[in-house]
Amino acid sequence: MTRTAHVLLIDQVADWEAGHLLAELNTGRFIGEPWKVVSVAASDQPVSTMGGLRWLPDITIDDLDPTKSDLLIMPGGVGWQPGQEEPFVASAKQFLNAGVPVAAICGATEALARAGLLDNRPHTAAAKEALEATGYKGGERYLDQRAVAADGLVTAGPQSPVQFARATLGMLGLMSDEVLEAYEALFHRGDPSAFPVLMSI
């Protein structure tokens, strides 16, 4: 059965931050089989990205059901602000409570922090100071790493889209440790020696 990933499209979504992860899931080129990628927005109207694109959502947030999903992806973006983010954060909480993995990067981590969802989970973000500005209580669980996967949640800062993809694919068990290392070596460090490992899949 084809697995499904849902990606949240908040206004002015950072289109590049989940790009590596979405490409690997949608194509299946290094994970064996492609996933179905479903975009989710607050309404059925197109969402403008920070890169100037207009993305048409597949479903609205009201139709998002964690029992029909295998992963929730939360890219960053300008729209992660009180007054806009609440329905998306509520869905993330539903996913985590249901045991369905969530992957959040950049501004989405700050939204989770504002909701108290990082208070008791190991996590990272753009910077510790960014999360502290939200008033959250999870500072002792902050890790100064490019990406953190723990308790069904992946977090990363905007400078780490490749590590975000690697951590999520690893948490899902879609790549071996060897392939994960080769993936980061190629797409982050430009190491051509990683090609043979990836091409052997």
Automatic annotation (TrEMBL):
The organism of origin for this protein: Kocuria carniphila
Residues in DJ-1/PfpI domain copies: 5-169
Pfam families per record: DJ-1_PfpI
Name used for this protein in its record: DJ-1/PfpI family protein
